[in-house]
Amino acid sequence: MIDKIKEYIGEVEAFQTQNKEELEAFRIKFLGSKGLIKDFFAEFKNVPNEQKKEFGQVINQLKTTAEDKLKSIQELFESKEETVGIYGDLTRPAEPVKIGSRHPISLVKNQIIDIFSNIGFNVSEGPEIEDDWHNFTALNLPEYHPARDMQDTFFIQTNPDILLRTHTSSVQVRYMEENKPPIRTISPGRVFRNEAVSSRSHCIFHQVEGLYIDKDVSFADLKQTLLYFTKEMFGKSKIRLRPSYFPFTEPSAEIDIYWGLKTETDYRITKGTGWLEIGGCGMVDPNVLKNCGINADEFTGFAFGMGVERIAMLLHQIGDIRMFYENDVRFLEQFKSSI
Ligand code: DAH
Where in the cell does this protein reside (predicted)? Predict the structure, then answer.
């Protein structure tokens, strides 16, 4: 009998439960009014005298072990109930946290930066509030030059010399003023134009400017660089440089890429031609080099400028430029990315 009681002590010590019903069953089995311990105590009178002492000890041990176990598990249950009461169930899995996503303009901008940094271009930035010199005059657009009308400008009313930059070409001026050739830089940034907002144009948008100045830089280098970019960015390997005019480059060209005419969308966005314009470019005008303190007899260079929104719209088939600025999460959430 003593051995049997010792076995029960082992069972009590090993007992564990998360469940109230099981704990109650345990209590009834050992400590209940018809429980085992009661039975053993009743048995005490039948135990031979020489065993009474040991029998009494083990049975008391069983009783205290069972009582302690019951108490400690009950306390555990109660402490859990308390935390549930105040904070809700702390053991529940957490609500999923909403992770934001990068803005499509930032994604495309970073992609462009990656592509050019692979061929040795660094990134430069300049102020969005510019002066006349950096936005216009140094770029071969003196006061009253008719080409200033190509870009409708927001001026700061109290000071006509200060304006919101109309293009990131202003950054190339700043960069040339502060750095000596060889120069290989791209300048992404926000620009502003006083234009009516529609699905195709906005008064705020982004550009990436590129500038390469060194000895013997040629138009062929420009074309090759742009071809490399279009292959990497769009997977298209045909471009066309269409003669154009910009005051800061000579000769100047518009950059067209051959998009193709496979789908209905291709027809729509290329107006049935298969060609799409993505920006302007040219050989930096010697006057601009001089204005920025670079010897135009020794150095030549090319420059280009592209609209980031336009590229993002092409890549992601976005039909309305205003979507970039409306901050509609249903739109923005679609651009989850690790870049
Ligand atoms: N700044 C021009 C614009 O905003 C774009 C541009 C054209 C930039 C030709 C250039 C360039 O650097 O060479 O329309």
Answer: Cytoplasm
